[in-house]
Amino acid sequence: MDLYDFDQVIERKGTDSVKWEIQNPKVNGEGMLPLWVADMDFACAPEITEALVKRASHPIYGYTLKSHALYHSLKEWIQKRFGVAVEESWMTGIPGVVPGIHVAVEAFTAPGDGVLIQTPVYHPFYHAVENRGRHVVTSPLVERNSRYEMDWDDLTQKLSDPRVKLMLLCTPHNPLGRVWTRQELERLGELCVENGVIVVADEIHSDLVYEPNIHTPYYSLSPQLANQSVTFLSAAKTFNLAGLYTSYLMTQNQQLLRDFSSTASKMGYENLNLFGMEATIAAYQNGEAWLEELLIYLQGNAAYLNEFLATRIPEVSMAIPEATYLGWIDFRRLGLSQAELNKLIREEAKLGLHDGTTFGRDGAGFMRINFACPRSILVEAMDRLERAIKK
Known about the structure:
The chain is an alpha/beta fold. About 40% of the residues lie in helices and about 15% in strands. The protein has 15 helices and 15 strands.
């Protein structure tokens, strides 16, 4: 029996929800159904709410230490979910993965250095590099049979450029939903070690992986490879806690940890949210049953989208992702320019999807959809899309 009701539609308007209330005609104009920003329209695990209510009942919310329990909960979660032994001394807290990436770029590179990203990719990667006066170096992923792979020749060439000091790795990949294999990560890691390039791995989606795929944490690779890397983690995507701004950096390289922590302090990122810490601990200690049911529901949503498009709008397609609750919908066979595609989606279908070019020029012809919502909302979205295209 299902313990949790992921079909329940919960009204989010009136809560200052970015997804539902932002005044942006591209994603949430008049009459549009928003399916863009990456949070979920599901109630979080009840154990998390209980922990927050319990802490809120103590009426003082003053400055709070980064608790031992916080790091311990992550250590135990990693051991249980991935079978990897890590140390609390490898960890530090940061108010979010995106702020953390800004800190890492500042800590591990100098102005004018090159930072490599694999496109199309999560758009704050570009901002973190450019906003800190560094140079974006792109290595486009290669599409083969609706599945994306690393371009090894291109990576070899670009990582060997002495100006490239850092690589931002999205693993699992947003928006493409790829789960990189151990073999792929090892080959990539060896290239980075050979060329003295530090890897910054964003693993925020690492808990949202669908069987039979297996997430390989970058920090679980051989000591030589792991030692030249830092990894960002958070319960935010897994347990729908994005508004609580609590994430981790982890590395066994104590010099990288010191450099990161020192830079974070200089940039004003020393403290964590009290309730974010409480929610994270509760999630990792008591949220696993909820997560297992969530994964089944999300996989069902992805299968629904894939099948609907294949049978009702065959000129549009979406491969079922290996991870994340984000779908990469391919509209290229409609033969529209990106401006025409945006007009179709926003004005005709009245859908708030994420323009594929947000993730890089190689996202042209695509839209990203967030399918972490009750199935009834996706049914409405697909009906709107079918009517708009067939009109």
